[in-house]
Prior knowledge:
Elements: E1 6-7, E2 10-11, H1 12-16, H2 22-25, E3 31-33, E4 38-40, E5 48-54, E6 57-62, E7 68-74, E8 79-80, E9 94-97, E10 102-108, H3 109-117, H4 120-146, H5 149-164, E11 165-167, E12 174-177, H6 182-188, H7 193-205, E13 209-211, E14 215-218
Amino acid sequence: MNSLWFFDDVNLFKVLCPHKFKSYKQNHNFDAYKKKDYIYFVEDSANKVYLIEKGKVKIGYYNEDGDEVVKAILTRGELFGEKAILGANKRNEFAQSVDNETSICPIGVETMHDLMRNNQTFSFKIYKFIGFKFQKLERRLQLLLFKDTKTRLIEFLDQLCEEYGYNCKKTGDHVIKHPYTQKDIASLIGTSRPTLNILLNELKDEEMLDFSRKEIRIYKKIA
């Protein structure tokens, strides 16, 4: 299984979280959040970056009409708030817990800069990780702007297969064990949950896939 929890064979949480370092451990605590709790709001000071120990976090903003736009839903081991590393002073998005038991490892920007200054290889990996994340976001935004809903779903499933999929040796199927709910997927491809369910059932009727709450089985390539 390949996901952002592993990056160049490095577990980001184990590498980055300050409680692993003696010089930071004494004054470091984890932050706990319930469902719908905000980690930060738009215009908040950008003085920390965050790693998810467990749970899920939604990243988004509100457009001029007041509608919520979901940029990403992140899971265990993923980094967010990383624009603070690059010099941003204010948040231009919100981060909100979508699980009832979300645990976050906060890292002060100065602490992060210290860690990066002391290890050039580590610093390179962080910048590479951020670049990969931006590419992933750009790809998804292009889908939202230029593709119809069914195509957005098919390409999103292709992406899920790359990140969470593996081949079932007995049948040759691609099995995707993923952390997202149908509501999460609907938000990420810019549609409603009922529409998503209709499209998934259409693909199921076409014998292209089958799905359950935590698993999608692709019978043949759908892109």
